[in-house]
Amino acid sequence: MSDKPLPPCSVLLLSGGRGQRLDGRDKGLVAWRGRPLIAWLHEKVRPLTDDLIISCNRNAERYAHWADRLVHDDSPGYPGPLAGIRAGLAVARHEQVLILPCDAPLVDDALIAELLGAACERPVMVRQGEFWEPLFCVLPRTVLPVLEAGWQAGERSPQRILHTLNPVAVSCPNGDPRLANLNTPDLFD
């Protein structure tokens, strides 16, 4: 890892899902180790940015405490994370946007620094073996037109659309605990 400073970035935390595996509970607000999941991510990324965005589709008054601004999907029915990514990129103030899911409180400074350190004109995404993790990424705002065109054509998979942009890989081992998604009831307080 180089000693060069990390680029200025916006941060987008994705917390707009329907919480299907949690009986409809708002995942970002579910307590883990005594604090809501969103609080863990906020603590990790707050020092990195003056533009912290949370994509949420409900409980905006509760999420406002952890964000500089909130966004929500422009389509009904919780259409998935690509909707939140589009909304966040559209309002981001910096050219690079670090994107993380709200249910990954074990992401660490080293992984975030590696993602941001690789920031360029292409998407930077975590890859485990041959599998890409599009919700752990850094996107240049310049990809928004491509995401928008894909969305209008019916694409809903961040992985498929970002893969067409020749992403830069940040490799993580299979089963890396930093990427663990806490999204089932047995994992919570």
Output the keywords.
alpha/beta, Spore Coat Polysaccharide Biosynthesis Protein SpsA, Chain A, two-stranded antiparallel sheet
Question: Can you characterise this structure?
Answer:
- This protein has helices spanning 37-45, 60-63, 81-91, 109-117, 144-152, 158-163; strands at residues 10-15, 31-32, 35-36, 52-56, 69-71, 96-101, 124-128, 131-140, 168-171.
- By secondary structure, the chain is an alpha/beta fold.
- A hairpin with a 2-residue loop joins β7 (124-128) and β8 (131-140).
- The chain has a single domain (10-187), classed as Spore Coat Polysaccharide Biosynthesis Protein SpsA, Chain A (Alpha-Beta Complex), CATH 3.90.550.10.
- The chain contains 6 helices and 9 strands.
- α3 (81-91) crosses α5 (144-152).
- The strands form 2 sheets. Strands 5-4-1-6-8-7-9 form a 7-stranded mixed beta sheet, sandwiched between helices.
Task: Summarize the SSE layout with pairings.
Blueprint: E1 10-15, E2 31-32, E3 35-36, H1 37-45, E4 52-56, H2 60-63, E5 69-71, H3 81-91, E6 96-101, H4 109-117, E7 124-128, E8 131-140, H5 144-152, H6 158-163, E9 168-171
